[in-house]
Amino acid sequence: DAMVIQNPRYQVTQFGKPVTLSCSQTLNHNVMYWYQQKSSQAPKLLFHYYDKDFNNEADTPDNFQSRRPNTSFCFLDIRSPGLGDAAMYLCATSPQSSYNEQFFGPGTRLTVL
Amino acid sequence: AQKVTQAQTEISVVEKEDVTLDCVYETRDTTYYLFWYKQPPSGELVFLIRRNSFDEQNEISGRYSWNFQKSTSSFNFTITASQVVDSAVYFCALSEADDYKLSFGAGTTVTVRA
């Protein structure tokens, strides 16, 4: 089945230790998104890629970076995680023909110790 | 300004009761899209429905139904004969024309008790 896959599902890191979350898709969608969702809050868009074009949200901290080496994969790098970065990170994709119909992965829950 | 308002924070019902989730949106665009997503405890956001601004026809899918009223800027969601598996957080979202961004409401937590 075509899907959006996120690994790992649970990630524990130490304060200040860089961490990378990964997302892959078999849907061949042009657009990929990263969202941050803190407890009891709505998802918040961090950035998105349209093919290789990177689009950062204005309020996304510099601590968050992303890479998209090819259509299928997208990575979220947190350079120096703080306690406030503990959250669920959701990856989503959408096709060019229907870009606002987003398909979400299961998420990675990040804990910062 | 908040674009999507879900006034109900939590709703608790007994199994087989109907439950209606309210969603009020705000936009100046004439072309826009409205969505409902379900987020069960596992965390994945599950797409339920997308409706464009030119289609005010109500929709029914099994036990789910949606009522879209442009006159009141509302896109309400009803679960008929609720089941325990319906327990989740439900998000309403808006996407304006030519914008990739989904503006989510704060979510409504639905708890269905056996």
Describe the structure.
- The complex is a heterodimer of chains A (113) and B (114).
- Chain A has 113 residues and is an all-beta fold.
- In chain A, 0% of the residues lie in helices and 51% in strands.
- In chain A, strands 2, 4, 5, 6, 9, 10 and 11 form a seven-stranded mixed beta sheet that branches.
- In chain B, strand 10 and strand 11 (103-104) form a beta hairpin.
- In chain B, strands 2, 5, 6, 10, 11 and 12 form a six-stranded mixed beta sheet that branches. A four-stranded antiparallel beta sheet of chain B has the order 3-9-8-7, with no helix packed on it. Chain B has a two-stranded antiparallel sheet with strand order 1-4.
- Chain B contains no helices and twelve strands.
- The interface between A and B is medium-sized, with 24 and 20 residues.
Short summary of the structure?
The complex is a heterodimer of chains A (113) and B (114). Chain A has 113 residues and is mostly beta strands. Chain A has no helices and eleven strands.
Helix and strand string of chain A, N-terminal first?
EEEEEEEEEEE
Q: Classify the secondary structure makeup of chain B into a structural class.
A: mainly beta
Most extensive interface, chain pair and sizes: A-B, 24 and 20 residues
Give the CA-based shape of chain B.
globular
Rg of chain B (C-alpha, Å)? 14 Å
**Low-confidence parts of chain A lasting 5 or more residues at pLDDT below 50?**
none
Q: How would you state the average pLDDT of chain A, rounded?
A: 93
What keywords describe this structure?
heterodimer; A: mainly beta; four-stranded antiparallel beta sheet; 11 strands; B: 114 residues; mainly beta; six-stranded mixed beta sheet; 52% strand
How is the topology of this model organized?
The complex is a heterodimer of chains A (113) and B (114).
Chain A: E1 4-7, E2 10-13, E3 19-25, E4 31-37, E5 44-50, E6 53-56, E7 64-67, E8 73-78, E9 87-94, E10 103-104, E11 108-112
Parallel strand pairs in A: 2-11
Antiparallel strand pairs in A: 1-3, 3-8, 4-5, 4-9, 5-6, 7-8, 9-10, 9-11
Chain B: E1 4-5, E2 10-14, E3 19-21, E4 24-25, E5 32-39, E6 46-52, E7 59-61, E8 64-69, E9 74-79, E10 88-96, E11 103-104, E12 108-113
Parallel strand pairs in B: 2-12
Antiparallel strand pairs in B: 1-4, 3-9, 5-6, 5-10, 7-8, 8-9, 10-11, 10-12
